Every structure is written in structure tokens, then in C-alpha cells.
Amino acid sequence: MLGCRWLLALLALLTVGFPNPGGAEEGLRFPSHDGAPRVLSVTASNYRAALRGSPVVALLLHRPGGTRREREERVLELAAQVLEDKGVGFGFVDAEKDAATAQKLGMTEENSIYIFKGDEVIEYDGELSADTLVEFLLDVLEDPVEFIEGDHELRAFENIEEDPKVIGYFKGVESEYFKAFSAAAAEFHPYIPFFATFDPKVARKLTLKLNEIDFYEPFMEEPLTLPTPPQGKEEIAAFVEEHKRATLRKLKPESMYETWEDDIDGIHIVAFAEEDDPDGFEFLETLKEVARDNTDNPELSIIWIDPEDFPLLIPFWEKTFGIDLSRPQIGVVNVTDADSVWLPMADEDDLPDAAELEEWIEDVLEGEISTEDDDDDNDDDADDDD
Ligand SMILES: *[C@@H]1O[C@H](CO)[C@@H](O)[C@H](O)[C@H]1NC(C)=O
């Protein structure tokens, strides 16, 4: 499973067996909506049945009318079709007509999708596209804890760099400590992957003692160990909650809104770097080095954006921030008005080294570099529609 989520998503698309509209190659057929309605309109009278109808149910809270709604319906219908055999049900709740139902279900934010799985409610705070939503729901369907056994799986675990990860060493599935760990995992699933091992050899390589739990921030080589094991569910959850805002975090389509809303005193330090590009790669390595050196600073959290993950947003960002995204950039963005300042670089050969970058970041944190410095008035209106 490790690192293969995209593959799963692709397999799901391939195995559904919808009619082939364009005569595409056998074995590589992208779905289009077949026209059958699958998304329920969820109201006070049918919400109980809707939630009982499938093991996982995804409900979107929407405001009626407008083109936005049509687009949302198309995305949900396609996702519902693709995931039909996987046991995922879909529905809309009308924020006006069925406000009471929404409230009963704990759905507060319009245009958000709430995913119900057993007793858990997961809020989806990602991009509303069928690909990203399907990928996310396939993750939701998996168990919250993955098991690591043997060298290959250990290597796959170690190769996870962009996501935070939690791992514990336990006696077995019957262990009380494992059960507490598993219950904590369910609270963060699927945003933060949890792993467990029962294999003493794996534990030794990770320097884990029995019932010990380690938390790895993204891009960090050294874990934080939970104090004094063994821990109960609440302690584990509190520790993960406390450390989950990473020093360096990647903006991902499936959690982009959640990440963006988690600003630090109204600003974000944002770095654009394309990992597949030599300059972008080099800049990213410098950024990781600086993040590792400053991981103890709770004031620092840099958002890394790989523009390739968001092709549709590139022109928007270039215009809003007045930068050229064909090369690496780092800047400060005010989340209220999208006003920004960027580290000056003459060209792509003028990348800062770790010391220069660290100095610039320090200036930002001390308020010496601020988006308010140059306030002339030709900013573009950053949030023209929704
Ligand atoms: C961000 O912009 C708003 C509106 O222009 C301003 O009031 C606020 O002080 C700015 N915040 C920071 C941290 O510069």
C-alpha cells in the first residue's frame, strides 16, 4: 500500500467497467458520467437511512443555485459512479432548506464535504475534483493503522517524507496499548498515517522500545518520541495534535484549504519549488536543511508548493503575487489581502544558500520583512469569486 495511493486510485478507475465513450485503448479507459443519478438529496426524513446505506457516506453541504452547484454535482456524480462498488454513498444537504439536518449531522461549513464512517466524521478540506476526492476516499476506506513487517516495508516506511507519520511498537493486536494507539489513529485518519510493528527486528532498527511511539514531522530524519510510555488514546492524540503543524509542510490538493487556513499570525511563508526541476530540487534541499535546523521553533512553518501539483493555479498565483513561477521563489503572504513580499533573486542561478535563507526567515519572523513595508496600492483583488 505504501506510497501507492495514486496507483490504487488509478486501479479503481480501471476496474469499474463503465461504457467506453470514445473508443479509448482497452485497459486505459477514463470514466465519464454515465448519466445515472447516484447522489442522494439528503433531508430530515431520509438522512438516517442514507447513513446506514453504505459503510462510508460522503455528504456535501451546499447552498442551492448557481453554476457552482452544477459543478459540484458533476464532481460528486462521477466520484459516486467510480466508487459505487466500494461501498461509498454520496449525498447533498441543502444548507437552507435542511439547515436542521445539517446541524444534527454536525455539518457547519458550506461547500465542505463531511465523510461519515462508523462513529467517525472526517471533514474533507481539499480540492473539489473527482480525482482528488476519489483518492482521498480510497484512503478513508483503508484501516487507520498500517502494519510494518520486514525490511522492504521498513524501507517503504522510511521513504515517506512529505507526510507526517506515527509509528509504535507493540506486542500484538490484543495489546491494550495497541488498542489505544489504534483509537488515536482513527481520529487523524487519513490525514496523518499511523503505522505499527510487532516485529522486534523492525523495532530495533527504528530504536523503538516496547509500547514506545515515535512521531515524525514531514522531511525530518529524527522523530519525536512520546514521553513515558505507555500512553492512552487521549495522550497520544494530544501529542500528535501539538506537533502536527510542521516546520516544512507541502501543500496538497486533498488538504489545501485546511493547510491554508492554518496561518501563523495572519501570514504564511510560502516557497514555490518544482521538485522535478534541477533548480527547484536544489532550492528544496536547502529549504529542508533550514527546516531541520529550526524544527524546534514553533513560530516557523513554511508551506512548500510544487506548482506542478496545481497547474490551474499557476497563472493566478503569478498574477496575484507578481512572480515568475518557472523558477523557485520564497516569500511572505498576508492571508487577509494576499499582499506579499518575495526574496529577491536575480535569476535561477542566484538561489540563496542555507545561511542566506535562514537570515531572511529570521528577518521575517522578527517583523523586519513584512508585507506592509511597500504598501503602494496596485494589488490585484485576490479573492474575486468564492
Ligand atoms: C494583513 O493585511 C491586513 C489588511 O490589509 C492588515 O490589516 C494586517 O495588518 C496585515 N497583517 C500582517 C501580519 O501584516
TrEMBL record:
Family (UniProt): Belongs to the calsequestrin family.
Alphabetized CDD domains for the sequence: PDI_b'_Calsequestrin_C, PDI_b_Calsequestrin_middle
Subcellular localization(s) per the UniProt record: Sarcoplasmic reticulum lumen
Annotated region (Disordered), positions in chain: 366-386
Assigned GO CC terms: sarcoplasmic reticulum lumen; Z disc
Name by which UniProt lists this protein: Calsequestrin
InterPro entries (alphabetical): Calsequestrin (IPR001393), Calsequestrin_C (IPR041860), Calsequestrin_middle_dom (IPR041858), Thioredoxin-like_sf (IPR036249)
Gene Ontology biological-process annotations: regulation of skeletal muscle contraction by regulation of release of sequestered calcium ion
